[in-house]
Amino acid sequence: MSDPGLVPLTPLGGAAPRIDRIGAISIAEVADLALVSLAVRAGQENALAEAAASFLGHPLPGPGEGAARAFWAGPGQWMLHGRGAEHANLAARVKAAVGGSASVTDQSDAWAAFDVEGKTVAEMLARLCNLDAARMPAHAASRTLVEHLGCVVLCEVPARRYLVLGPRSAAASLHHALTAAAIGIA
Q1: Known InterPro entries for this protein (predicted)?
Q2: Exposed/middle/buried for residue 148 (C-beta within 10 Å: 0-12, 13-18, 19+)
């Protein structure tokens, strides 16, 4: 069988993730993020809570909360994420762990992700969205608008490092908004 020679592209269309350093801020495209949606099935709340806690090592987070590898996305809905080795099979591993208690859908290719980091990153985010990023605790997650895009901002290290998720189809627009805000405070 012939090898078609296909090469996966990042959300910004490159063969490798793009990294921009502007002043004290680094904006890095994340190409190896696995993202899986989890939605509880009717009457399965307790079964899912138990199975997910066993899989994650902690309970599923509540509204506005996040925890290592998971954040609340809506009533009865969560997003689980992982990087690197977890990328290729996270959805299958989650499905095996939760069984019939939840619907599991791989969302990895639907989202663009950017690590934004630096001593002035909270100020940069304040110019882009209505979050007080400097006060977000570690693992907190919030839906917000960045420019005109529905995004999720996850705090990895308070006031220092965040993961910004936005629609993959608008990756270039999100990247432009992030870099323009970083230039504005550089």
Answers
A1: TrmE/GcvT-like
A2: exposed
pTM strictly above 0.85: yes
Kindly report, residue by residue over 62-84, the tens digit of the pLDDT: 887 766 689 999 999 999 999 88
Whole-number Cα distances in Å, 31 to 6, 111, 159, 175, 185: 16, 10, 23, 14, 26
Three-state secondary structure call for residue 125? helix
Q: Give the model's pLDDT for residue 156.
A: 94
CA 13 and chain centroid, separation: 19
* Nearest of 157, 114, 111, 166 to residue 138 by alpha carbon: 157
What domains sit in the chain, N to C, each tagged with a CATH number? 19-32+109-185 (3.30.1360.120), 33-108 (3.30.70.1520)
Token pair 């970083």 is found at: 182
Which tokens go with 113? 């992700």
Query: What spatial distance separates the first Cα and last Cα of the chain, rounded to whole Å?
Result: 52
Residues 164-177 pLDDT 10s: 999 999 999 999 99
Distances (CA, A) of 77 to 30, 81, 164, 166: 23, 13, 19, 18
